[in-house]
Amino acid sequence: MSLKIMQDNNSPASTNTYLIWDEDTKDAWIIDASSKTKPFIDKIEEEGLKIKYLMLTHGHWDHILSLDFWREKYGVKVVAHKNSKDYLEDSRINMSFKYSDIPDISTHADIYLEGEEGNFDIFEYYYTPGHSYDHLMYKLGNKLIFSGDLIFRESIGRTDIYGAKFEDLKSSILNIVYSKFDDETILLPGHGGSTTIKHEKQNNPWIREEE
Length: 211
Prior knowledge:
By secondary structure, the protein is α/β, with parallel strands linked by helices. The chain has six helices and 14 strands. The chain has helices spanning about 40-45, 60-65, 65-75, 85-90, 165-180, 195-205; strands spanning about 5-10, 15-20, 25-30, 50-55, 75-80, 110-115, 115-120, 125, 135-140, 145-150, 150, 155, 185-190, 195. Helix 1 (about 40-45) links the parallel strand 3 (about 25-30) and strand 4. It is globular. The N and C termini lie far apart (about 40 Å).
């Protein structure tokens, strides 16, 4: 397996979307659905990629805005946590109703994951509530985690919105991110640039290792 990753954040809330593909088999995966990103479409067409799954970290509007576009255009199956049903179906919970320039979003996933952690296709998944009660992180290989809106470079996801709770977010970071994985593991978040677990343990002003 020879994996490549492309990132794009050309979306209304500068939300990161990731395209992963295997150069050998041409199988591909998308993490989150923030826009109908042209670089992804161009790469998919140029390489003849077959998108197997669209993996959602959580169901807030800026992560699901183009979900139905990808499903309809490429026949991709959408994967999310079982608690995402609330977010995906209700525009008040996913917060799309707040914005006049985007449609109210009511949609669904094709596959709902359960349990605190597990394996799905090429990923390991970890249930990490705090920013939302449906939040998942996806681990790829030994040194790479798609961390969604749980933790950013020297910051954390919001906890002042429906379904969020700071104590849950703190627990997810301390007991999962900081405890289960190697310090050199790279975090690819839902917003902003990449970081490492070691850097966040030492520099994140919200939640440091010594807590």
